[in-house]
């Protein structure tokens, strides 16, 4: 994982929200403080989308997730309900990821197609390579990791809310980031394996004849 991205994630998804939560909670109350603390993460997500500079599947997913997530928060009406809504939404996302595997279109595979296209590769040529049995299996496993992240995250948040009420925001945001980083680290190994397999499938360069060899 890029160190700059990890540092930015820590600052925008963890440090800023926690600082804003603790500073604003006593002045604004639980629910308004939660909404305000989500602003850095929203702005950072928008920035990352703009950095991609293309409305591809990954970009559409980011924007849709951001819009739905924001609506889930602002329509909750209370801090505790906001946390419950986020937990349910997380479980729904896990089911959605599972559905993409069920229809043989694991969403992580399409995210990777977007990124390889941005790097100059031909999308139509890369897609059949990604759908080779051994590589598709790894994409399904990586997508399953994200299913695990969403389901565990949602169940954990439900338990925290039932135990601590609005105080679960403080505990849940740390647990969420630890879970995200752990799953992301495992996913990286999968991407490395896929890259290795794709390189193995590239045809060897043509052999030089004697005249070309002498010139070389």
UniProtKB/TrEMBL annotation:
Keywords: Membrane, Transmembrane, Transmembrane helix. The chain crosses the membrane at residues 5-23, 29-50, 57-76, 88-113, 134-158, 178-195. It comes from the Bacteria. This is Integral membrane protein. It comes from Heyndrickxia acidicola.
